TrEMBL record:
The chain crosses the membrane at residues 88-105, 125-148. It comes from the Eukaryota. This is Uncharacterized protein. Keywords: Membrane, Transmembrane, Transmembrane helix. It comes from Apatococcus lobatus. The keyword Transmembrane helix applies.
Length: 154
């Protein structure tokens, strides 16, 4: 069997030995990937080469449009504020989710064990902690959306 840089070439297992000997008796049609130059697409069909060229052009266009968008954000000056607001909103969202899980566990404990230890701790924190966190989440979503729209319009 012909070898490619010391490795045997792969041969389909579903073929008979006679077919394999006839098909692979000459290595003229087989190309060794170890000796092939990087970027050599000569053995690919024309349609695939054209697709690869279109993909490279689109990737280049995307890179230039991304750099232009970054320049616009830097010129606007609001990019840093929006990033901070978004990070605070993400943290607040997970805090509110934690509070809801705590409430669900407390309700489950009340229903199954007839004990209200979790709810007794949760209820005093409702007005002091959880309601303001939900309000900050709503207000932050509105502010973040407004800043995003202003950046998009300018």
């Amino acid at each position: 069997m012909p070898a490619c840089a010391g490795r045997p070439l792969s041969v389909p297992l579903c073929r008979s030995p006679a077919y394999i000997r006839q098909r692979y008796s000459s290595t003229s049609g087989l190309r060794c990937s170890a000796t092939k130059e990087p970027g050599d697409n000569s053995d690919l069909p024309e349609s695939i080469r054209q697709d690869m060229e279109r993909y490279a052009q689109k990737a280049q266009q995307a890179a230039t449009s991304t750099s232009k968008a970054a320049q616009r954000e830097g010129a606007a000056g609001n990019g840093g504020i929006k990033e901070v607001i978004d990070k605070v909103l993400i943290a607040d969202f997970f805090f509110v989710c934690l509070a809801l899980v705590w409430l669900a566990l407390g309700v489950g404990e009340q229903a199954t064990l007839h004990s209200s230890r979790l709810l007794d701790v949760w209820f005093p924190l409702w007005q002091l902690v959880f309601q303001p966190a939900i309000g900050i989440l709503m207000l932050g979503a509105l502010v973040s959306g407004a800043i995003g729209r202003l950046q998009k319009d300018s």
